[in-house]
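input
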Amino acid sequence: MKRNIGKIDRIIRIVIGVGIIVSGVYFESWWGAIGIVPIITAAIGHCPAYLPLGISTWKK
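output
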């Protein structure tokens, strides 16, 4: 997989993912598990949704 997520984009995804998980725990909802998705995409540096749109925030 080719990287297409830059440093700032990764930080934003991690913050959003943690926020979703925390809100899921706070409201006792399993929907907080969705927060794992942005954290995983930040960890691997690849977002499948960016491919069809031709977006890349990765600077070589």
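quick obs: The chain has a mean pLDDT of 94.
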